[in-house]
Amino acid sequence: MKKILTLAPWGLLSSLLAQTHSVGNEELYRDTTNYDIYGIKQIEAIRTWGLGDGNGLGEIFTFLQAHYFSSIFLAIVIVVPLLFLMHYMIIGQRKFQHGKSIKVFSTYNIIVHWCAAIPFIFVCITGLIMMFGDKLGGGAFVRFARDIHALATCVFAPFGILMFFMWVKDALPRLHDIRWFMIMGGYLSKANNAIPAGKFNAGQKVWFWVATVGGAFMVFTGAFLFFQAAPLDTLRLYAIIHNIIGFAIIILLITHIYMAVFAIEGALGSMLNGNMGEEELAILHSCYYEEIKKLGKV
Ligand code: HEM
């Protein structure tokens, strides 16, 4: 661990510099990238190490990596947006009167949200590029994506922690979340009935925990994979965990963006100016609306 913490910034910096400045200055910009591993051959190298030892994760990792991981990611990035396109065409966008608006998110909430969200999106996109690296021709493009993947992770991590402590109280499970799941948040009907939800509905709470705690697991397993700083089977286990949490993150990120930009007219505004319309709150977050009404905040 100490080795990772001391080497991380230098490893990253040196590999980026190596790509841009190596010509004629080898001794100054010694390229530390192990081309026998990174790019197309990375998975090959991990897959074949120790195969046949029979007692490690070699077999299951090879099987999952060869047959499932990239196919599942491909299915996710195709099927999930298609499902939301169908939802948009059949159920349509939710519209509310934009009468009185109520401050729901503070400036601090908005700043932390975007400082976490933007690098997080870079991490997700570059992660998918690495997953399909061999289909995208590998080489410098995939290595660059790998370095951006690590760099964006370093930016996301501190803001992910701030986001966790900022919203953990609002994301704690409540009884009405069960009712929310039973009606899928009312998103499968056009009726504008009051939905049992707090400041965050049950779906938003799941996204919060996957983005923050799941994100922490991704940073942890990703750091070991990036620096190959663990025994082979541990690396394989971390790769399996990294991929499985990766499935949930990509599915819920697409869902979050659909809900925040397309499913509810004007929802995006709440993460730009912090305000939500009174009718939208009263219907989509009816329990929270009752709470703030009792407090005289409406
Ligand atoms: C283009 C991308 C994004 C947009 C447009 C967006 C927009 C929003 C909006 C409008 C809200 C307020 C409540 C809501 O409508 O859900 C929100 C909340 C939130 N966002 Fe994002 N966001 C984006 C990306 C992200 C990313 C990458 C993360 C992960 C770190 C994230 C984490 C959260 C969390 C945890 C909440 C509170 C719970 C929730 O409402 O789902 N967002 N976002």
Could you describe the 3D structure shown?
The structure is a single chain. This protein has 10 helices and 2 strands, in the order H-H-H-E-H-H-H-H-H-E-H-H. The protein is mainly alpha-helical and 298 residues long. It has one domain (61-294): Transmembrane di-heme cytochromes, Chain C (Fumarate Reductase Cytochrome B subunit, Up-down Bundle), CATH 1.20.950.20. A two-stranded antiparallel sheet has the order 1-2. Helix 1 crosses helix 5, helix 3 runs parallel beside helix 8 (232-263) and helix 7 (202-227) runs antiparallel to helix 8. The longest helix is centred in the first third of the chain and has 33 residues, at 58-90. The radius of gyration is 22 Å and the shape is elongated. The model is unreliable at 16-25 (pLDDT under 50).
How is the secondary structure organized here?
Elements (H helix, E strand, L loop, with lengths): L1 H20 L19 H8 L9 H33 L10 E3 L3 H25 L7 H29 L8 H7 L19 H26 L4 H32 L11 E3 H7 L1 H9 L4
Antiparallel strand pairs: 1-2
Helix pairs in contact: 1-5, 3-8, 4-5, 5-7, 7-8, 9-10
The structure holds protoporphyrin IX containing FE.
